[in-house]
Amino acid sequence: MVPAEWYLLLSGLMFCIGLFGILTRRNALLFLMSVELMLNAANINLVAFSYQWGNVTGQTFSLFTMALAAAEVAVGIGIILVLYRNFNDIDVTKATTMRW
């Protein structure tokens, strides 16, 4: 049996990698991938605690989080397509000219 601490360590590392990706990348696709990595780290936490306590509440919340992530990707891809049409690049720093 794998103890819950290993799952928490894995999710902490995944969350830190995702946070690093958000803070350092300019590419919008890599930005979305980093957000997905952070959401998956939260899902691992939910499932690990659900397994440790012997109930399915964490797994249920994990399913809702996956549905939220799917909706976030759909909206994010739409934003990226608009960004590419307007600037011929998916660099998020160029989108500052779209302000007022």
From TrEMBL:
<feature type="transmembrane region" description="Helical">
    <location>
        <begin position="6"/>
        <end position="23"/>
    </location>
</feature>
<dbReference type="Pfam" id="PF00420">
    <property type="entry name" value="Oxidored_q2"/>
</dbReference>
<keyword id="KW-0813">Transport</keyword>
<dbReference type="GO" id="GO:0030964">
    <property type="term" value="C:NADH dehydrogenase complex"/>
</dbReference>
<comment type="similarity">
    <text>Belongs to the complex I subunit 4L family.</text>
</comment>
<dbReference type="InterPro" id="IPR039428">
    <property type="entry name" value="NUOK/Mnh_C1-like"/>
</dbReference>
<dbReference type="InterPro" id="IPR001133">
    <property type="entry name" value="NADH_UbQ_OxRdtase_chain4L/K"/>
</dbReference>
<dbReference type="GO" id="GO:0016651">
    <property type="term" value="F:oxidoreductase activity, acting on NAD(P)H"/>
</dbReference>
<keyword id="KW-0472">Membrane</keyword>
<keyword id="KW-0812">Transmembrane</keyword>
<dbReference type="GO" id="GO:0042773">
    <property type="term" value="P:ATP synthesis coupled electron transport"/>
</dbReference>
<keyword id="KW-1133">Transmembrane helix</keyword>
<protein>
    <submittedName>
        <fullName>NADH-quinone oxidoreductase subunit K</fullName>
    </submittedName>
</protein>
<feature type="transmembrane region" description="Helical">
    <location>
        <begin position="30"/>
        <end position="51"/>
    </location>
</feature>
<feature type="transmembrane region" description="Helical">
    <location>
        <begin position="63"/>
        <end position="84"/>
    </location>
</feature>
